[in-house]
């Protein structure tokens, strides 16, 4: 079992969710986050004054999938989130030692 974590642009969330649903991924966790990578933020003008925005709004998606579905999940997220512009985001994959569905007591792959 693996956790696929993706940091993407907020307006791409629905496309990524649709791609994961089509793949058969049943659940995901979404968190609104702020951060920056190579784009280092940007400047904006508000009421005539210019100011720097150091941290840009992003969305973090976390999906627990069986090991056999990792590559398909990563490809689905990358394909749906890609705009070709700087700041498209990153995808990280980490291992899960144990999973338990609290309601039924199912464990590991059955709990996903």
UniProtKB/TrEMBL annotation:
It comes from the Bacteria. GO terms for molecular function: ATP binding; enzyme regulator activity. The modification O-UMP-tyrosine is found at residue 51. PROSITE patterns: PII_GLNB_CTER, PII_GLNB_DOM, PII_GLNB_UMP. Keywords: Nitrogen fixation, Nucleotide-binding, Phosphoprotein, Transcription, Transcription regulation. One of its GO terms (biological process) is regulation of nitrogen utilization. This is Nitrogen regulatory protein P-II. The lineage of its organism: Bacteria, Pseudomonadati, Pseudomonadota, Alphaproteobacteria, Hyphomicrobiales.
